[in-house]
Design goal:
The complex is a heterodimer of chains A (140) and B (159). Chain A has 140 residues and is α+β, with helices and mostly antiparallel strands. Chain A has one domain: Glutaredoxin, CATH 3.40.30. Helix content of chain A is 46%, strand content 20%. A 5-stranded mixed beta sheet of chain A has the order 1-5-4-2-3, covered by helices on one side. The radius of gyration of chain A is 17 Å and the shape is elongated. Helix content of chain B is 74%, strand content 4%. In chain B, helix 1 packs antiparallel against helix 2 and helix 1 packs across helix 3. Classes of the chains: A alpha+beta (140), B mainly alpha (159). Chains A and B meet through helix 1, helix 3, strand 3 and helix 4 of A and strand 1, helix 1, strand 3, helix 4 and helix 5 of B.
C-alpha cells in the first residue's frame, strides 16, 4: 500500500510543481536593485537602445526556443542586441546575478542597467512588453 | 542582431516527442515498481529493465534508448514529421540523472533499505512525470546548480 501512496504523492508533487512553473515561467519581472553590465563584462558591445543577455546551457531544451524568440525581436528592432552566453563558461556572471536556471534572460537598457529578468522559456509578448517599457524609459 | 557564438553547438538533433514518449513508459514502469514494493522480485525485474534503459540512453546515447527505439519504430511513422527538432544533450543528460536514481533504488531493494528504495524510485517517478506531462527536464535544471556548487567547492578548496 505504501507504494500506491508514494506514487500518488509523486503525481501530486509533479502537478503542483509543473503547474506552478507553467504559470510563472517566461514572465518578465522588473529588477529593482538595478545592477549593470558593460561591454567589458559581456565581451560583446551593448545595443544602443537595449540588450538581451541570455544565459544558456548545453543541457537546456527551452534555451533554443528562447534564443529564437530573442534573436527574432533583436533582428526586427533597431538598436536592440541579443547576446547568448554559455552559463557554464560564465560562472562569474552566474554567481554575480544569482542565476539558478537556464534560460535566464536579463534585459538591459541603453546604459547597461539590468531592468528586467525573465526566467524560463521566454514568452514573446512578455519580452515585447518589457522591451517597450525599457525603451519608453530611455525616451523619457 | 544576435550573438550565438558562445553557445555550444549540439552534436545531434532529435524529435522532441521521442524522449517525452519514453518518459511516459518510464513513469508507468516506475509506478509498477512502487506498487510492487521493495520486497517484490517482479518489482526488482521491472526496475532492472528500466535501469538498463536509462543506462543505454545515458552511456550509449539516445539512439540506443529502448523506449526511443519503440517510438521511432512504431509511433513516429503514425505521427509524421515533428514541428521542430531539439538538441540531444538535454534528454541524454536526463537519462543519466534517471540512471543515478534507478541505481539507488536497486541498491535500496538489494540491501533491504526500504526508505532508500521509496525515495529514489519516488523521485525518479517525479522526474519522469514532469517530463511526460509538462515536457520539463528536472535534471537539466539541476545541471547549472551542480556546476555552481562544484565551481564553488573547487574555489573553496583552492583557498
Amino acid at each position: 500500500m505504501t507504494g500506491v501512496w508514494i506514487a500518488l504523492a509523486a503525481l501530486a508533487l509533479t502537478l503542483a510543481f509543473g503547474g506552478y512553473r507553467r504559470l510563472t515561467d517566461g514572465r518578465a519581472k522588473p529588477v529593482r536593485t538595478a545592477p549593470s553590465l558593460d561591454e567589458g563584462a559581456l565581451g560583446s558591445p551593448l545595443g544602443s537602445q537595449a540588450t538581451f543577455v541570455q544565459f544558456s546551457a548545453t543541457v537546456c531544451a527551452p534555451c533554443r526556443a528562447t534564443h529564437r524568440v530573442l534573436a527574432e525581436i533583436a533582428a526586427d528592432t533597431e538598436g536592440v542586441r541579443h547576446i547568448d552566453l554559455n552559463a557554464e563558461t560564465r560562472l562569474d556572471l552566474v554567481e554575480e546575478f544569482g542565476i539558478t536556471r537556464t534560460p535566464t534572460v536579463l534585459l538591459l537598457d541603453a546604459d547597461g542597467v539590468v531592468r528586467n529578468r525573465i526566467v524560463g522559456a521566454a514568452r514573446k509578448s512578455e519580452v515585447v512588453n518589457a522591451l517597450q517599457q525599457v525603451d519608453r524609459a530611455v525616451a523619457a | 542582431m544576435s550573438e550565438p557564438t558562445s553557445v555550444p553547438a549540439s552534436s545531434g538533433l532529435i524529435d522532441p516527442r521521442g524522449p517525452r514518449f519514453g518518459a511516459a513508459i518510464t513513469a508507468v514502469l516506475l509506478i509498477t515498481v512502487l506498487i510492487l514494493g521493495p520486497t517484490s522480485l517482479a518489482g526488482l525485474i521491472v526496475l532492472l529493465v528500466q535501469t538498463v534503459a536509462f543506462a543505454a540512453g545515458s552511456l550509449l546515447g539516445l539512439q540506443a534508448q529502448p523506449w526511443g527505439l519503440v517510438y521511432r519504430r512504431f509511433v513516429r511513422p503514425r505521427l509524421g514529421a515533428p514541428a521542430e527538432l531539439e538538441a540531444s544533450e538535454p534528454p541524454r543528460f536526463a537519462q543519466s540523472v534517471g540512471l543515478v536514481f534507478a541505481v539507488a533504488g536497486l541498491a535500496g531493494w538489494i540491501f533491504g533499505l526500504a526508505v532508500l528504495f521509496w525515495i529514489a524510485v519516488g523521485f525518479a517517478l517525479v522526474a519522469a512525470l514532469l517530463n511526460a506531462i509538462f515536457d520539463f527536464c528536472l535534471g537539466c535544471e539541476l545541471y547549472l546548480l551542480g556546476k555552481r556548487l562544484s565551481a564553488g567547492s573547487a574555489a573553496g578548496a583552492a583557498n
